[in-house]
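Chapter summary example.
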Amino acid sequence: MIPAQEIVLRLVLGALIGGIIGFEREVHGRAAGFRTQLIVCVAAVLIMIVSENYYFYIKAIDPTLRIDPARIAAGAIIGIGFLGGGVIIKGGSTVRGITTAASIWIVSAIGLAIGAGLYLAAVATSAITVVALVTLRRV
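The structure predicted for these 139 residues follows.
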């Protein structure tokens, strides 16, 4: 089981990172801004925490059971893909919202990493994402 203070740390870090990425989207007036990115990241953190705790819970009940805790996370990524698809808008020959959809997807992956305790991977990915969103503009 994950200690309570570790759970809180993971959730707060997810809110912080999701909020930072969401702030960038909000400043640029994108559909999925601060609140959306923050909520998606925290939800992904929680999904991974539940997945990890579920694994330990089942193993405590019956150590002979074979379960795959990654299935919950895999399902979450698929579900987040549908959310991201909702911000993509096609108008005539232009398509808008691809970067926002990608940011929703990467924020969920970052949340899963935080939920799994992979802080270095999450922070490094967040830094790369923020740098890309801030410095690289549409050509």
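To summarize the output: The first helix runs from residue 4 to 27.
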